[in-house]
Amino acid sequence: MDEGIGYRTAAQRSMPNVSAVLSLHRVRRKEGEKYRENRQGEVDTMEKRCNAEKGNRAMSTIRTERAADLSMQITHNAPESVFAGPQPNEPLNMKLK
Q1: CA gyration radius for the chain?
Q2: 85, 78 Cβ separation under 8 angstroms
Q3: Cα separation of 37 and 19, whole Å?
Q4: What is the distance between the alpha carbons of residues 39 and 47, in angstroms, rounded to a whole number?
Q5: Residue 45 needs a FRET pair 20 to 30 A away by CA distance; which of 5, 7, 27, 54 works?
Q6: Positions of the region Disordered (predicted)?
Q7: How far is residue 91's CA from residue 94's CA, in Å, rounded to a whole number?
Q8: C-beta neighbour count of 43 within 10 angstroms
């Protein structure tokens, strides 16, 4: 029998094309890896965004606390002439004279 191009034995005809199946598996595996990488990238982005929001909240809290501390320092260290209104310890009629 001549085994020319395109000639396949009965055993080969009953089996699926192995190289095509393997290449399909390779393609699917690569697509799966890309999908997992993309999903991991999305998860990383979400985690970064969440951490940034937490950091922003923490920084805004710190800024608020610092601003409160600074305002307390300013009011305690400022001379009395800075404030136009009466001081808590002096009576109202003192400013009207």
Answers
A1: 39
A2: no
A3: 27
A4: 12
A5: 27
A6: 78-97
A7: 6
A8: 10
Whether the Cβ atoms of residue 74 and residue 66 lie closer than 8 Å to each other = no
Residue type at 22 in one-letter notation = L
* Tokens encoding 55: 């950091």
The length of the chain in residues reads 97
Contact 94, 86 (CB under 8 A): yes
Q: Quote the distance between the C-alpha of residue 80 and its chain's center.
A: 48
Alpha helices in 1-97, H assignment, sequence order: 10-14, 18-77, 93-96
pLDDT in tens, the chain (97 residues): 455 556 666 666 666 666 677 777 788 888 888 877 777 777 778 788 877 787 777 777 777 777 777 777 666 555 555 555 655 665 555 555 4
> pTM of the entire structure?
0.28
For residue 46, what pLDDT is reported?
78
pLDDT at residue 79, as a whole number: 57
In the structure encoding, which two tokens stand for residue 12, read together?
């080969």
